[in-house]
Amino acid sequence: MQSDLLYAQYKLVQQSRQVVFQFLKENLMDDLAKPLPVFLDKTISYMYVHIANTYIAWAGNFAMNGASTYYDQDQPLNITQIEKLFAQIDKIMAGFIAHFSAAPTQDVKGYKWPEKYIETDAYSIFTHVITHEFHHKGQAMTMARLLGHTPPDTDVMRF
Predict the structure, then answer these.
(1) Could you read off the pLDDT of 56-78 as tens digits, one per residue?
(2) Residue 117: which H helix or E strand, with range?
(3) How far apart, in whole angstroms, are the C-alpha atoms of residue 35 and residue 58?
(4) Coil, helix or strand for 135?
């Protein structure tokens, strides 16, 4: 039962992400790497690489004891590269969900930062990475609006 819930929830995240990526393909190809002063000169590309790095850090490297390298957030990616990056994130999350779905509240222990011991549970990590994505997705859609584009409804429940 738990397994079905985590997979279903992540599927909703993926569907929302696809709406964003389709919008970016159709409207922002030339603006993905355009810095916005109000966002400290960050770009939409930066936001999506940052989101991916957070999945890698928490779900992949911390929870699953992985050793994946991080992507340079300041190196602009085009939409095809961003989609390939998120295909890798989907693999990390499939492994995470398969590993923790039977007992998502089990403890995850380890060192994340030097000299600081981190202990949490798998479900908290799962919740953190998906809410982190939605937080920055909102910023990316605000960036799109500031660049003169009208973003679509990207909520999980779209009307």
Answers:
(1) 999 999 999 999 999 999 999 99
(2) strand 116-121
(3) 27
(4) helix
Residue corresponding to tokens 């995850």: 108
What three-state secondary structure class fits 101? coil
For range 121-140, the mean pLDDT? 96
Q: Give me 8's structure tokens.
A: 């279903």
Joined together, the tokens standing for residue 112 give: 């994340």
Tokens 């990316």 -> residue = 140
Total number of residues shown for the chain:
159
- Backbone φ, ψ for residue 15 (5° rounding): -65, -40
Which single residue is written with the structure tokens 């738990």? 2
> Cα(47)–Cα(39) distance, rounded to whole angstroms?
10
Average per-residue pLDDT for the chain: 91
Q: Tokens 């992507």 belong to which residue?
A: 71
Please tell me the predicted confidence (pLDDT) of residue 42.
95
